[in-house]
Amino acid sequence: MWVHVMAWLTPDEAALSLFDEYADKIYEFAKYSLGNQSDAEDLVQEVFLRVYRTWSKRPADNPSAWVWTIARNCVRDVYRRRARHKEQPTDDLETWTHCARGPDTLVEVEDLFRALTQSERQVVYLRLIDDQSTEAAAEILNWSSAKVRVTLHRAVKKLRVMLSGDTAGAVSQSKERRSSR
Q1: What is the rounded distance in angstroms from the CA atom of residue 1 to the CA atom of residue 80?
Q2: Contact 89, 82 (CB under 8 A)
Q3: Most buried among 29, 31, 112, 131, by the most CB within 10 A?
Q4: Mean pLDDT for each consecutive 10-residue tract of the chain (181 residues)?
Q5: Using CA atoms, how far apart are residues 125 and 119, in angstroms rounded to an integer?
């Protein structure tokens, strides 16, 4: 029914409706992916600006996947910009971890997420925090379901190693995997 209702909306109404439904989730996704509150806020703005501008070209069958695809592409754009300008992400994880976990675990959470790759952070967010299905996460990331499962497995394994106290081993595993690519 949602799809049929969306077909009748103007770009203004559609962008506002989709913003109401997805803005908070996309913000959290961007925060986990980018590790920066300011970039996450900018990304949400950019996502819904693109929704507004491209409303007439949208796929009619799945507005949710379309919005998430725009968000994923915006995250990629930020990483490309950072690579071109050699920007280092601002470590603004304290803001959200303070609210979510309490001040006694801030350093631990920051270290955990720094050790994960961009792909691992995105999968952990979508599957474990936003509680998306494997298929939905695969569609959002434009991956196969198998890749989502494998990436999540590796991320969880890395997090378990780090939580058990062997953070050096987990970080070195991550660096080894990156250098072998």
Answers
A1: 37
A2: yes
A3: 29
A4: 58 85 91 86 93 79 85 88 67 45 51 82 86 89 93 89 65 51 48
A5: 10
Count of CB atoms situated within 10 Å of the CB of 61: 8
Q: Which of 134, 122, 6 is nearest to 62 (CA)?
A: 6
C-alpha 160/C-alpha 126 separation (Å) is: 18
**Per-residue confidence (pLDDT) for residue 92, from 0 to 100:** 47
Q: Measured between alpha carbons, how far is 28 from 68 in angstroms, rounded to an integer?
A: 12
User: DSSP state, 162?
Assistant: H
Q: What is the DSSP string of 54-117?
A: TGGGS-SS-HHHHHHHHHHHHHHHHHHHHHHHTPPPP--HHHHHHHHH-GGGHHHHHHHHHHS-
Collapse the DSSP code of 130 into the 3-class scheme (helix H, G, I; strand E, B; otherwise coil) and give the result.
Answer: coil
Determine contact, residues 147/138, Cβ cutoff 8 Å.
Answer: yes
Determine the distance from the C-alpha atom of residue 102 to the mean position of all C-alpha atoms in its chain, rounded to a whole number.
Answer: 22
- The one-character DSSP state at 128 is I
* Res 9: pLDDT: 75
